[in-house]
Amino acid sequence: MNMSTQPGPRPVGESPVTAGAVLEFEKPLVRIEQEIAELEAAQVETKRDMSADIRELRATLENLTRRTYAKLTPWETVLVARHPRRPGLRDYIDGCVKDFCELHGDRCFADDKAIVTGFGRIGGQKVLLVGHDKGRDTRQKIERHFGCAHPEGYRKALQKMRLAEKFRRPVVTIIDTQGAYPGDKAEERGIAQAIAVNLMEMSRLRVPICCLVIGEGGSGGALGIGVGDRLAMFEHAYYSVITPEGCAAILFKSAEKADEAAKSLKLTARDLKKLNLIDHILPEPLGGGHRDPGAMIAAFERHVVDTLRELKRVRIDTLLKRRYERLRGLGSFFESASAKKTTPKAKPRSGMSPRAASDSNDGTSGGTRLRVGSRSAKAKEVTAAAKSSLKPPLMKKG
Fold first, then answer.
1. pLDDT digits (tens, 9 = 90+) for 98-153
2. What is the pTM of this model?
3. φ, ψ of residue 84 in degrees (nearest 5)
4. Does residue 145 sit in the same domain as residue 31?
5. Looking at the domain assignment, is residue 56 inside a domain?
6. CA 398/CA 386 separation, integer angstroms
7. Is 345 left (phi over 0), alpha (psi -120 to 50) or beta?
8. How far apart are CA 377 and CA 386, in angstroms?
9. Would you say residue 62 lies in a domain?
10. According to the model, what pLDDT value does residue 18 have?
11. Number of domains making up the chain
């Protein structure tokens, strides 16, 4: 497996995390890893048996890693999703997509490198793959605008999806972007319309669609290729209407409060699953995907194969109906919350028994209900008296 993010044999004393960025909450883990590496090096040099100490440190490292990642804050989850050693689109293509044939251009303006499209085979199933590509090195990241697509990228994706529909091939979308490109050129070429058209057309595309968030899922940039029959997320990915920094800059006038904004956005996989906004949460290896990219790719392949096998058993008309119902059901948690709210009953007046208060609320007096006929007659008398009192006095002729 030839992947830039796949860690190969590393020198003694080098941690699998220190080769990339070290997150603040990972520093205690890195120190233990360095201690293990130093013991391994000393064991080789001195020929002394230090296996017991090494095993004890490894057990401590595993327990601490498990506790650390079990209680990540939403902001820490965002940092893990952005880790530079986390596998990206090209790593998944190299790792589990066979015979990949990339398709370029939107036949309208240009070829947006931020979105990659092409046919290939995943687990023996022929699919169209559409995904965000952030790039691997600095040059690629700049060329791809760090995964933020222009309108031509979404038009390219839609054109290739229609091609897949023509040949009856399922569509697999891989989402990993902070959002659509926010520049003036994207606005001039109609970024909002391009995303809106994709939302409409993907909702009625007559092939199965499987969507997966592998890292970041931000704003309309994610929605532009995120409409499908199944939506899944990796455990430490995030999916949100806006990035935490953007939300903090708008609400709190400072991007430094991104951690507070992340907590309010409910952007983690666990929160979104509770709100029924996603269908599945894919587990990650202990310590996040940047520690074991191979395990991430294997989990991705298993999920895609199982999901497509399930969706292919359903008639396409039924599939479209369920897709529509799924989209219409988004946000149903607001309705369920409002349904629980009931109108409070009037409190009984002092000196009144609960039975009398209940009768009073039901329109009764002294436990005896008024008959409809007598009530309507009384109402007519009151109405007639009110009308007569409102008539102006007659003026006498002079």
1. 999 999 988 889 899 999 999 999 999 999 999 999 998 899 999 999 999 999 99
2. 0.77
3. -65, -20
4. no
5. yes
6. 30
7. beta
8. 14
9. yes
10. 44
11. 2
